[in-house]
Amino acid sequence: MKAEIICVGTELLLGDILNTNAQFLAKELAALGITVHHQWVVGDNEGRLAQLVGEAMERSDLLVFSGGLGPTADDLTKETVARCFDDTLQLEPSILEAIQAYFAATGRHMPPHNEKQAMVPQKGGWFENHNGTAPAVWFQKDTKRAVLLPGPPSELKPLWTEQVRPFLSDGQQRVLHSLTLRITGIGESHVEEKVGHLFENENPTAAIYAKTGEVQIRITARAASHEEGERACRAYAEKFRAILGDVIYGEDASDLEHTLVQTLTEKGLTVATAESCTGGLVSQRITQVPGSSEVFGFGFCTYANEAKHKLLGVSEATLATVGAVSWQTAAQMALGVARVSGADIAVSLTGIAGPGGGTDEKPVGLVYVGAARGDEVYVAKLLLGNRDRQSIRISAANRALDYARRLALGLPMPGADKLSAEELAQQKQAMR
């Protein structure tokens, strides 16, 4: 079954109200195995609404509406859809009585124009609204069906859950099940280059999404049950894992910081952070995870050179010669926070987040990430480009979190150079 979601209301077009109904309905329809091909927002205009309904009826089997069922003159959804479905509206006494009782219970007299809310399809049907005055209604014409829901989410959601969803699921034999693979350390174009052929499958399907600092692959299977769908999704996910390997750090809601805390907990390890350009973002993300106190005890925000020297022991000579934004400083920051905290793993960040402050030699977006576990010390040079400040900080923080995860698991450190024994000795000597 193909569906379209149509949200009605000029206030939505103007941005005065956040359209959460479309997101809710899309997820609910997907759970029923109903594929949403289009979502629309249309103002309170009879002509434009009628045109959209006519076009949608040619494309899709089910139209789900929200909004435009109120008592005022600009609430035209029900009347317009009725004409498009060759139906007529008639007064339903029980609904009218319920509306009158609603007003009476609040000590008010029902205005005459509220009577229009008691009008229901002659050929279709209606659902009683226990949280408002406007009932939901449905229309049927041949194989085409429309369901009209009130706009307020406090009315729409319970109506859907209690009555509309069971109505639509009657006879539905298919469901959609999805899982999302989360990837960091490699860009969208490189992911697509490696696994692009896997996006051509029909069932399960796969789609790629770029997020700040990571890439996501959403796998969706149509199946007879959620259990069958889950098996199909996981089997297809293994094809991606076989190619992409450990750049896939988790699934679904398990973001990078949750994955790191879980990994450290399972391994019995601790982590500490030293941050400059990210201003404590890494430690903030770690500590928002429940249970992080078991694996995280020290987070230093050493923005000034003086703080890097006094708190972490970064060499004044290093800061004076090669500067704060250098691989040497990143290495010393990681060594310093590891020494002060006693943590098993330490990560550091220093760079230029912009928008100003860059030079030809050290442009905006240049970030050095240090990572240490014992005498294994790595430094990565990131060139994140002249993007907005927050994007640079998020991408840099992601790399630090991923390097901590990799050190905990003993995985390779892509993009990072391991300090040689001689280089490590030099940096330790500089810090004395």
Automatic annotation (TrEMBL):
The source's superkingdom equals: Bacteria
Start and end of every MoaB/Mog domain?
4-170
Q: Which InterPro entries match?
A: CinA, CinA-like_C, CinA_C, CinA_KH, Competence-induced_CinA, MoaB/Mog-like_dom_sf, MoaB/Mog_dom
| Residues annotated as signal peptide | none
- NCBIfam families named in the record: cinA_nterm, PncC_domain, PRK00549.1
**Can you tell me which family this protein belongs to?**
Belongs to the CinA family.
Q: What is this protein called?
A: Putative competence-damage inducible protein
